[in-house]
Write a structure and sequence with these properties.
Order of helices and strands of chain A: HHHHHHHHHHHHHH
Helix content of chain A: over 70%
Strand content of chain A: under 5%
Structural class of chain B: mainly alpha
Oligomer: heterodimer
Radius of gyration of chain B: 25 Å
Strand content of chain B: under 5%
Number of strands of chain A: 0
Largest sheet of chain B: 2 strands, antiparallel
Largest sheet of chain A: none
Shape of chain B: flat
Distance between the termini of chain B: 10 Å
Largest interface: A-B, 104 and 105 residues
Order of helices and strands of chain B: HEEHHHHHHHHHHH
Number of helices of chain A: 14
Helix content of chain B: 55-70%
Structural class of chain A: mainly alpha
Chain lengths: 278, 312
């Protein structure tokens, strides 16, 4: 093999490997979509077919007749968006104080924040549940959203990033007469947008998928989210695979769209938050 | 990672006067105002509940009637409870297998995507799909893939003349089935972080290595891995913490069965507290889980001093 052909062959191998790996990885996702369009008999047969012998797009309508799917979907958006916005804003403010402002007890307090990263959500689940119950927050939006909007990981990620922003930018704004708040809003936030977007997307996906907390807090269709709702759906229909997966496909689409729109930010954000090989 | 940075003074423009006591206290006040929203939420919904879990673990309480004080009796119940120990064992088994697997898959795919492809974004997006799908939804698909005789997994194994196990209903294969699904679900996160780490490694290092005639393996071993170790460490720690809390897919795919073969600690805590209404005991279990996670994470941090390379 000469030095001319080597890179070409290698590139072809890499592309082939990428295709192969991606194809295998996506089998469950493809299957979810295919089964969603199968007939009842076909999807519930003892020998499941991969490719539908006949297509049944009307399954979507049947799903909507059986469960209030649009209600659940809207609820999931409320829950994920609410926690994401609240978390991102409060984490950015706190991270700025930890990264840029001097006050007594700063290192100590930041250490306490970091320590709580290790606490599994199940340790706080029961007390949080009791607290929400005492405040009459069961089955309400504040009860669902507020307890899950304050985590140390967001503060940690954004602080790392803020530390990497040169101080001179801010100094210049301060010399022009901007106060701390204005410097934060006009200088730091725009520069840190990739990191903030990264945090927001991770948080949104995490909460979109969150089963345990909504399972405990919501007990009616008013606040029931999709992950919880799909379970209820299984109880009603035993194993009506085609309808179940139709509901699942339909509710996965918004998240995938969000993901495609934001993934550029995603990768750049992490690169710049001090986790790279530096 | 300096936590205490000196107060900002512009180095080349000595226009900012040295901070006086009054300015310092004003800065501290500003800092506390910035911290306030996060701090209130943090104290009420994280720190408070941790302390409360400690109190609840000393009570006998079913959520509805008034609690009675039982002291350390809930912790004493942990010892002779076979389900607790098997749940702990299952959780350890899950973690020990799924974390290295997840790291390997994430690293391999990140390296593959880092080969300078022009269409990298397409593959990256597609490979992130499993991470973006609703866990609860794809767990249903995986149940279906794992159907003993006609599921796709065993059909593919059949092509190679292997008769596959009964997966989710098999005593010895239910947990591996759960692990395979979990690795598939979560490798995307690690892949993105590692890929970001790879792209941050200065190319000059590789060129210098090439001049010295280093083999690909040698430059991977002595350049890539050390430079990547902070990102890898981050992925390891977050994966371990995450795998200790595995819940959703186990609840749907096996519901802890067969028997208690796939009952993880978190599932057991959920059953104890919200199915059997034994809140005090559930709190004791979750504090035990917390203790294990702290021990293991502390171990990882001690270990990293030897393995993780931080550029000073």
């Amino acid at each position: 093999m000469t030095s001319d052909t080597k890179p070409v062959v290698r590139r072809k191998l890499v592309v082939f490997a990428c295709f192969l790996v991606t194809a295998v990885t996506l089998i469950p996702v493809v299957m979810m979509v295919l089964v969603a369009f199968q007939s009842d008999d076909e999807s519930m047969a003892a020998k499941p077919a991969f490719w539908p012998s006949s297509w049944h797009p009307e399954n979507l309508g049947r799903v909507f007749d059986l469960v209030p799917l649009s209600r659940y979907l809207l609820n999931t958006v409320y829950f994920a968006a609410g926690t994401t916005i609240l978390e991102t804003v409060t984490a950015a403010l706190a991270a700025y104080a930890f990264a840029r402002l001097n006050f007594r007890g700063r290192s100590w307090l930041f250490g306490v924040y970091l320590a709580t990263l290790m606490i599994p959500s199940q340790v706080t689940l029961i007390p949080q549940f009791v607290l929400v119950a005492k405040l009459h927050g069961i089955d309400t939006w504040p009860g669902m959203i507020v307890p899950h909007a304050f985590t140390a990981i967001g503060v940690f990620l954004l602080r790392q990033f803020f530390l990497g922003i040169p101080r001179d930018y801010e100094e210049a704004a301060r010399l022009d007469g901007a106060n701390r708040w204005q410097a934060f809003v006009r200088v730091i936030v725009p520069l840190a947008l990739p990191a903030i977007a990264t945090l927001a997307v991770f948080k949104f996906i995490g909460q979109w998928n969150n089963l345990l907390w909504p399972l405990v807090i919501s007990n009616s269709d008013a606040t029931r989210t999709v992950p919880v709702g799909l379970q209820v759906f299984q109880d009603i229909n035993g194993t009506q695979w085609n309808l179940l997966l139709m509901a699942a496909t339909f509710t996965t689409i918004p998240l995938i769209i969000l993901f495609f729109l934001t993934q550029r930010w995603f990768v750049r954000g992490i690169t710049m938050s001090g986790l790279g090989g530096r | 990672m300096a936590v205490d940075t000196p107060p900002a003074t512009s180095t080349y423009l000595q226009l900012t006067p040295a901070p006086t006591r009054r300015r310092r206290s004003r800065e501290a006040l500003t800092a506390w105002l910035f911290l306030l929203p996060s701090l209130i939420g943090f104290l009420v919904f994280t720190a408070g509940p941790v302390v409360a879990a400690g109190v609840i673990s000393l009570l006998d309480w079913n959520l509805f009637s008034s609690p009675t004080w039982v002291g350390l009796r809930n912790f004493a119940r942990l010892g002779p409870d076979p389900t607790f120990w098997s749940a702990l064992g299952n959780t350890a088994y899950f973690t020990l297998v799924s974390v290295p697997l997840t790291i390997l898959v994430s690293l391999a795919l990140a390296l593959l995507l880092n080969q300078g492809l022009r269409r990298i974004a397409v593959f990256r997006s597609l490979l992130l799909l499993p991470y973006a799908t609703i866990t609860v939804a794809v767990a249903f698909v995986w149940i279906w893939l794992y159907i003993p005789h006609d599921g796709l997994v065993n059909a593919v194994l059949g092509w190679f003349g292997i008769s596959g196990p009964a997966w989710l209903v098999s005593d010895s294969w239910a947990m591996p089935a759960l692990i395979i699904m979990s690795v598939w679900k979560s490798f995307g996160f690690g892949m993105v972080v590692i890929l970001a780490g790879l792209q941050a490694i200065p190319q000059q290092l590789y060129e210098a290595g090439r001049v010295d005639g280093a083999s690909p393996w040698h430059s991977f071993r002595h350049i890539t891995l050390p430079m990547l170790s902070p990102a890898l460490f981050f992925v390891v720690v977050t994966s371990v913490i995450g795998s200790f809390q595995v819940f959703d897919q186990a609840l749907i795919m096996t519901n802890g069965g067969p028997g208690t073969r796939t009952t993880t600690l978190v599932m057991y805590i959920y059953q104890t507290g919200f199915k059997n209404y034994d809140q005090g005991y559930a709190a004791a279990q979750s504090l035990a889980l917390f203790a294990f996670i702290v021990l293991i994470t502390a171990g990882q941090f001690l270990f990293q001093r030897k393995l993780v390379h931080y550029d000073k």
